[in-house]
Amino acid sequence: MRTALPRPGRSELLVAGAEFALDALAEHVIDRAPRPDSLLAGGIRWTTKIVLFPVRFLFTAETGREATNHAAVTHYLAHRDAPAAALVSAALGWRTDPPEGGHALAMLRAHLLPLYRHYLDDHIERLTAAVHPELAAAFRRWRTALEDRPASARHPRGPTQT
Questions:
Q1: Is residue 8 part of a domain?
Q2: What is the mean pLDDT of residues 70-92?
C-alpha cells in the first residue's frame, strides 16, 4: 500500500513554477515575444503554451493549487484589471479552434508583452517575499531583457556554468 506523500506548499509550488519558467520559457519569450510572427511559426500549440503558462503560474501563486488551463484562465479573467485579458481568453479558444494568422498576430503584438510584464512583476514581488532572492533577481533580469529587446538575448539565470 502506498503512503500518502505530503502536498507541496504554496512556496514550494511558487519556486518550482519559477524555476520551470526560467529554464523552459525565459529564453524563448525574450527571443520571440518581440517578434510574434516567429512565435506563431512554432505552431499554435506552442504559442498558446507561451500565453497560458504565466496565467497558470499566477493561479498557483495566488491559490496554492495547480489548475487546468480553463480553471486558470477563468480565475485570471475574474480580475477586472488583468492585463492581456483578450489574449488570454483567445489563446484558450485557440487550443481547440486555431485562429487565422492575422488575428493571432495582432493579438500577440498588442498583449503578449503586457502579460509577461504583469507575470514577472508579480513573481518578483512574491519571490522576494518568500525569501528567494536568487530567483527574484533572475526574474528581474528577465523583465529587463524584455524591455531591452531584442538587444538583450542572454538567459536571465546568467552565464551557463560548465
A1: no
A2: 97
